[in-house]
Amino acid sequence: MKFFHKGVVICLGVAASCVFAAAADPFQPANRITAKTWNSGFADAHDSYNSMGAASDGNVYYALSSTRHDVGAQLYRFEPGSGVITHLGDLTEACGEKDTKTLVQGKSHNVFVEANGKLYFATHAGYYSIIDGKEQMGIPPEGWKPYPGGHVLSYDLATGAFEDLGIPLANEGILTMAMDTARGRIFGITWPAGHFVRYDLAQGAWKDFGPISAKGESGQGAEYRTLCRSIAVDPRDGSAYYTVSEGDIFRYDHAKDAIEPVTGENLRKDYFGLYDPTSPGHMAYNWRQTIWNPVDSQFYGVHGNSGYLFRYDPTANRVVVLDRITSEVSKRSGMFDQFSYGYLGFELAPDGRTLVYLTGGPIYQDGRRVAGKESTAMGEAKGLENLHLITWDIPTGQYLDHGAIFYENGDRPLYVNSLAIAKDGAICFLARITENGHLRSDLVTVRIP
User: Fold this and answer.
1) Cis-peptide, bond into residue 26, ω within 30° of zero
2) What's the distance, CA 232 to chain centroid?
């Protein structure tokens, strides 16, 4: 599959329809891409974050979230070639909590990881209470018990069997998860208090390293910190890296089974903006999403609020800011995009050289930008925006905004913070879809140039 050919953009597959025409207005998307929507059969599905993964069997696996206290997240398999969607299970039931009257496992909030023929992923709370304008762990309705805590699950690709690896920290969801597949260690950051936890497959045991950033998102005032959404694992030595709101980088050392600060480098870059780490509604200096590139043995990441792409070399301990990979329209507007935390839809394509990014773009009507809220204390979209598909070629540094994505009926995909790319190049993400007056979150596919 090629993404570029002699400077000519090529569209592949029946799931996309690309129209390339010069835009008369520089504040309108130059191109439009038509995406296909799917119905997984889960009417209660709500906004999902990460919660996807492309597996070695060629299929894409995803979890649809729920905000209900009594209906949990559901796991599905999508076969890109045939378009068949299969329901694989209820995550609350997979955790052994069916009919327990505890608040359900409403989400999976991480990118799925494959190891030894199994997918590994964590569960998270989906039922919240809004306190002081911020999302906090849900207060149970009468007759229900508090959220028991997030689990790590595995799903066997061959047999379809779930295995529950347990709860690392009672009453805390698992916000972020990654895995050192070679050494069998799973890492997580819990929510809302923000503990770093580790599971060892060989020992079958969890270890809690304690809170990593003040009181995390449970804190008030000076003790509040937005938590990192991506743990970056170096497969060469098993190191696991994460950031905190102040921009400092921390490293889990596999040999020592300990966490240590990374000195001499950080993410406090002027280009990323100026932030108060104690205020909610933004990711501050945290990276938003990261991926490992095995070709050059470096991490590539995005700072969510500014939309800057950077490279982190763990051997040289050096961050290199590469390019602003927001949409062309965003660049021209000079403004941050509408999603307050930035975007999680960032992945390396199957060709091993193309970074794919799903990001926002401002909407202009009658020559004026459609503005949303000026600020928010939550991770949310402050207003309507277009969804743009960006590619960035690692060897050449070539940036391309392929245009704004629309459904066949002309609607915009909204609340997109997920991305999985199948072996055959199918781009899959989860977004809000309105059909027959009903709003749900569900699978969307597109094939990119």
Assistant:
1) no
2) 13
